[in-house]
Write a structure and sequence with these properties.
The protein contains eight helices and twelve strands. The chain is an alpha+beta fold and 287 residues long. It folds into two domains: 142 residues, MutM-like, N-terminal (N-terminal domain of MutM-like DNA repair proteins, Alpha-Beta Barrel); 125 residues, Orthogonal Bundle (Helicase, Ruva Protein, domain 3). The two termini are 28 Å apart. The chain binds zinc ion (ZN).
């Protein structure tokens, strides 16, 4: 699943190509993808245009000229593919050349056609992703359910320490909880814990203040760097130009089990389960 850096990359890439184009046609091939009434969905979108794209956690928010908002979540296998003649801007799960050749294909669930004949496809193999129209009020309510965004100015050391107060679970489970911190998934949680030298299964209530501050700093640092390099490609992510994300080369532990730790060069990276998720760590560096 794309995490914050990957979704942010899609947002930035799509902003360059889909804004201020009149939506001429909306085709819903799979009603299930639309949360709410599909006919109403089409009626509201037709004739309008996207004026801005924002993001909260892993959720994309397309602002419409009508004042409504189109919420888009890619979940496990969603892709957004924009095509203007032969020029393609695509992001999301596992985009291969085959996905881009014959559009629409059998996985194209919703198709937008703009006045200049360019098109935006929402493709999704497993159909966990969704699109939903929301009013300003609904959008604000949904945004409030998400936790702090590590790239926003409200993500401060104080707010982070406050969130950790009186928590009893494991640090990785905390980092993955979207209601507390929005946007961190399995890849970046492991990388953050590794750089902080803290085992992902450490109990929050026995972390020192220094360790908590380190984790805070690394959340910011690692996600910022990942956005700079347009995310991580791991089997299932290509940025909106269909290119692999450049952060892969900076990964230290994610999917590196059995290889030598790049920090201590003494121990091998191990794999365990934390909260049901495959988790990589160095048994020597991480306490
Ligand atoms: Zn190590």
């Amino acid at each position: 699943m794309p995490e914050l850096p990957e979704v942010e990359t899609i947002k930035r890439d799509l902003e360059k190509v889909v804004l201020k184009k009149k939506i001429k046609e909306v085709k819903v091939e799979k009603k299930k993808i639309v949360r709410g009434d599909a006919a109403e969905f089409v009626k509201e979108l037709k004739g309008g245009m996207f004026v801005k794209i924002s993001r909260v956690g892993k959720l994309l928010i397309f602002h419409l000229s009508s004042g409504l908002f189109l919420l888009v979540h890619l979940k496990m296998t969603g892709q957004l593919i924009f095509k203007k003649k032969e020029k393609i801007t695509a992001g999301g799960h596992n985009i291969s050349n085959k996905d881009l050749e014959n559009l629409p294909n059998k996985y194209s669930r919703i198709i937008f056609t703009f006045a200049d004949k360019s098109r935006l496809f929402f493709n999704d193999i497993r159909q966990f992703g969704y699109m939903k129209l929301a009013s300003e009020k609904e959008k604000t309510a949904i945004e409030k359910k998400y936790g702090l965004d590590p790239l926003s100015s409200s993500f401060t050391k104080e707010s982070f320490l406050e969130l950790l107060e009186n928590k009893k679970g494991k640090i990785k489970t905390f980092l993955l909880n979207q209601n507390l911190i929005a946007g961190i998934g399995n890849i970046y949680a492991d990388e953050i814990c590794f750089e902080a030298k803290v085992r992902p299964d450490r109990k929050i209530d026995n972390l020192t203040k220094k360790e908590k501050e380190k984790i805070f700093l690394l959340c910011k640092l690692i996600l910022k760097k990942a956005v700079k390099y347009k995310g991580t490609t791991f089997r299932d992510f290509r940025n909106a130009h269909g290119k692999p994300g450049g952060f892969s080369k900076f990964l230290k532990v994610y999917q590196k089990e059995k290889s030598l730790c790049p920090s201590c060069h003494r121990a091998k990276i191990e794999k365990m389960k934390v909260g049901g998720r495959g988790t990589r760590f160095c048994p020597y560096c991480q306490k």
